[in-house]
Protein backbone atom coordinates (compact mmCIF):
# COMPACT_ATOMS: atom_id res chain seq x y z
CA UNK A 1 0.00 0.00 0.00
CA UNK A 2 2.86 2.39 0.87
CA UNK A 3 4.53 1.86 -2.54
CA UNK A 4 1.25 2.53 -4.32
CA UNK A 5 0.72 5.75 -2.34
CA UNK A 6 4.27 6.96 -2.96
CA UNK A 7 3.84 6.55 -6.70
CA UNK A 8 0.72 8.73 -6.66
CA UNK A 9 1.88 11.30 -4.11
CA UNK A 10 4.77 13.10 -5.79
CA UNK A 11 4.81 15.83 -3.17
CA UNK A 12 5.48 13.33 -0.39
CA UNK A 13 8.30 11.78 -2.40
CA UNK A 14 9.97 15.17 -2.90
CA UNK A 15 9.61 16.15 0.76
CA UNK A 16 11.02 12.78 1.88
CA UNK A 17 13.98 13.15 -0.48
CA UNK A 18 14.70 16.60 0.90
CA UNK A 19 14.45 15.36 4.49
CA UNK A 20 16.82 12.48 3.75
CA UNK A 21 19.29 14.84 2.09
CA UNK A 22 19.29 17.18 5.08
CA UNK A 23 18.88 14.47 7.77
CA UNK A 24 16.77 17.01 9.70
CA UNK A 25 13.15 17.72 10.28
CA UNK A 26 11.83 20.31 7.89
CA UNK A 27 11.79 23.81 9.32
CA UNK A 28 10.33 26.97 7.83
CA UNK A 29 13.45 27.73 5.82
CA UNK A 30 13.51 24.23 4.33
CA UNK A 31 9.81 24.42 3.49
CA UNK A 32 10.45 27.64 1.56
CA UNK A 33 13.32 25.88 -0.19
CA UNK A 34 10.98 22.97 -0.95
CA UNK A 35 8.44 25.34 -2.51
CA UNK A 36 11.18 26.63 -4.80
CA UNK A 37 12.26 23.07 -5.64
CA UNK A 38 8.64 22.13 -6.40
CA UNK A 39 8.42 25.11 -8.73
CA UNK A 40 11.71 24.21 -10.41
CA UNK A 41 10.61 20.59 -10.81
CA UNK A 42 7.62 21.84 -12.77
CA UNK A 43 5.03 21.12 -10.10
CA UNK A 44 2.27 23.69 -9.90
CA UNK A 45 0.21 24.43 -6.83
CA UNK A 46 -2.67 22.66 -8.60
CA UNK A 47 -0.57 19.49 -8.86
CA UNK A 48 0.30 19.70 -5.15
CA UNK A 49 -3.37 20.24 -4.36
CA UNK A 50 -4.32 17.18 -6.42
CA UNK A 51 -1.66 15.12 -4.65
CA UNK A 52 -3.06 16.23 -1.30
CA UNK A 53 -6.62 15.35 -2.36
CA UNK A 54 -5.47 11.88 -3.49
CA UNK A 55 -3.59 11.41 -0.25
CA UNK A 56 -6.65 12.36 1.86
CA UNK A 57 -8.83 9.98 -0.13
CA UNK A 58 -6.38 7.12 0.26
CA UNK A 59 -6.08 7.74 3.99
CA UNK A 60 -9.86 7.54 4.31
CA UNK A 61 -9.87 4.12 2.70
CA UNK A 62 -6.57 2.98 4.23
CA UNK A 63 -7.71 3.44 7.83
CA UNK A 64 -10.20 0.60 7.52
CA UNK A 65 -12.97 2.75 8.95
CA UNK A 66 -14.75 2.77 5.58
CA UNK A 67 -16.25 6.22 5.92
CA UNK A 68 -15.21 7.89 2.67
CA UNK A 69 -18.81 8.55 1.61
CA UNK A 70 -19.64 9.99 5.02
CA UNK A 71 -16.53 12.20 4.95
CA UNK A 72 -17.25 13.48 1.45
CA UNK A 73 -20.86 14.22 2.39
CA UNK A 74 -19.60 16.13 5.44
CA UNK A 75 -17.38 18.19 3.11
CA UNK A 76 -20.42 19.07 1.02
CA UNK A 77 -22.68 19.81 3.99
CA UNK A 78 -20.06 21.92 5.78
CA UNK A 79 -19.16 23.68 2.51
CA UNK A 80 -15.46 22.94 3.06
CA UNK A 81 -13.48 25.51 1.11
CA UNK A 82 -9.89 24.39 1.66
CA UNK A 83 -7.84 21.35 2.60
CA UNK A 84 -7.86 22.08 6.33
CA UNK A 85 -11.66 22.25 6.40
CA UNK A 86 -11.81 19.02 4.39
CA UNK A 87 -9.48 17.30 6.85
CA UNK A 88 -11.70 18.45 9.73
CA UNK A 89 -14.70 16.96 7.92
CA UNK A 90 -12.82 13.68 7.50
CA UNK A 91 -11.83 13.70 11.17
CA UNK A 92 -15.46 14.26 12.16
CA UNK A 93 -16.70 11.42 9.96
CA UNK A 94 -14.07 9.00 11.23
CA UNK A 95 -14.65 9.97 14.87
CA UNK A 96 -18.41 9.66 14.51
CA UNK A 97 -18.37 6.28 12.82
CA UNK A 98 -15.65 4.91 15.08
CA UNK A 99 -17.43 6.01 18.24
CA UNK A 100 -20.67 4.33 17.24
CA UNK A 101 -18.93 1.11 16.20
CA UNK A 102 -16.93 0.89 19.43
CA UNK A 103 -20.03 1.68 21.48
CA UNK A 104 -21.99 -1.03 19.66
CA UNK A 105 -19.28 -3.55 20.48
CA UNK A 106 -19.25 -2.37 24.11
CA UNK A 107 -22.96 -3.07 24.52
CA UNK A 108 -22.46 -6.63 23.28
CA UNK A 109 -19.52 -7.25 25.62
CA UNK A 110 -20.04 -9.52 28.65
CA UNK A 111 -16.77 -8.62 30.40
CA UNK A 112 -17.38 -5.44 32.42
CA UNK A 113 -13.74 -4.31 32.25
CA UNK A 114 -13.58 -4.58 28.47
CA UNK A 115 -17.01 -2.97 28.18
CA UNK A 116 -15.80 -0.05 30.30
CA UNK A 117 -12.66 0.35 28.17
CA UNK A 118 -14.68 0.38 24.96
CA UNK A 119 -17.14 2.91 26.34
CA UNK A 120 -14.23 5.13 27.39
CA UNK A 121 -12.71 4.85 23.90
CA UNK A 122 -16.07 5.67 22.36
CA UNK A 123 -16.38 8.69 24.63
CA UNK A 124 -12.96 9.97 23.53
CA UNK A 125 -13.95 9.62 19.89
CA UNK A 126 -17.18 11.53 20.56
CA UNK A 127 -15.11 14.23 22.25
CA UNK A 128 -12.89 14.42 19.15
CA UNK A 129 -15.99 14.84 17.01
CA UNK A 130 -17.33 17.63 19.24
CA UNK A 131 -14.00 19.46 19.28
CA UNK A 132 -13.70 19.22 15.50
CA UNK A 133 -17.21 20.67 15.17
CA UNK A 134 -16.25 23.59 17.44
CA UNK A 135 -13.07 24.20 15.45
CA UNK A 136 -15.01 24.11 12.18
CA UNK A 137 -17.52 26.60 13.60
CA UNK A 138 -14.68 28.92 14.65
CA UNK A 139 -13.03 28.61 11.25
CA UNK A 140 -16.28 29.38 9.43
CA UNK A 141 -17.28 32.32 11.66
CA UNK A 142 -13.81 33.71 12.19
CA UNK A 143 -14.13 33.03 15.92
CA UNK A 144 -16.53 35.94 16.36
CA UNK A 145 -19.52 35.90 18.66
CA UNK A 146 -22.61 38.03 18.19
CA UNK A 147 -24.30 39.13 21.37
CA UNK A 148 -27.51 41.14 21.21
CA UNK A 149 -28.25 43.29 24.24
CA UNK A 150 -31.67 44.89 24.46
CA UNK A 151 -32.76 47.33 27.13
CA UNK A 152 -36.30 47.57 28.44
CA UNK A 153 -37.51 50.53 30.48
CA UNK A 154 -40.62 50.05 32.61
CA UNK A 155 -42.35 53.10 34.09
CA UNK A 156 -44.15 53.16 37.43
CA UNK A 157 -47.22 50.94 37.30
CA UNK A 158 -46.10 49.28 34.04
CA UNK A 159 -45.37 45.63 33.36
CA UNK A 160 -42.66 44.09 31.22
CA UNK A 161 -42.85 40.77 29.41
CA UNK A 162 -39.61 39.21 28.27
CA UNK A 163 -39.61 36.69 25.44
CA UNK A 164 -41.12 36.23 22.00
CA UNK A 165 -44.67 37.57 22.07
CA UNK A 166 -47.21 36.44 19.52
CA UNK A 167 -50.64 37.91 18.90
CA UNK A 168 -53.91 36.10 19.49
CA UNK A 169 -54.38 32.96 17.44
CA UNK A 170 -50.68 32.76 16.53
CA UNK A 171 -48.72 29.67 17.43
Topology:
Layout: H1 2-8, H2 10-22, H3 28-40, H4 45-62, H5 68-77, H6 83-108, H7 112-141
Helix pairs in contact: 4-6, 5-6, 6-7
Overview of the structural elements:
The protein has 171 residues and is mainly α. The chain has two domains: 1-62, no CATH class; 66-163. The chain is 68% helix and 0% strand. The longest helix is centred in the last third of the chain and has 30 residues, at 112-141. The radius of gyration is 25 Å and the shape is flat. Mean pLDDT is 75; it is low at 4-8.
**N/C terminus separation:** 60 Å
Percent of residues in beta strands?
under 5%
Order of helices and strands: HHHHHHH
Helix and strand content put the structural class at mainly alpha
The dominant shape is: flat
Radius of gyration: 25 Å
Output mean pLDDT. Answer: 75
Give the helix level as a range of percent. 55-70%
Oligomer: single chain
Strand segment tally? 0
Number of distinct helices: 7
Provide tags for this entry.
mainly alpha; 68% helix; 2 domains
What's the short version?
This protein is an all-alpha fold and 171 residues long. It contains 7 helices and no strands. α6 (83-108) packs antiparallel against α7.
Amino acid sequence: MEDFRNERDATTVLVRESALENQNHLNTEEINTKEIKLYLDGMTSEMVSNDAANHRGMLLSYTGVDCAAMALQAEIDMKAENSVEKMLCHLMAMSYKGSLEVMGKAFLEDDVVIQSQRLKASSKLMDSFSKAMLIMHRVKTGGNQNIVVQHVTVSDGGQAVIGNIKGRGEL
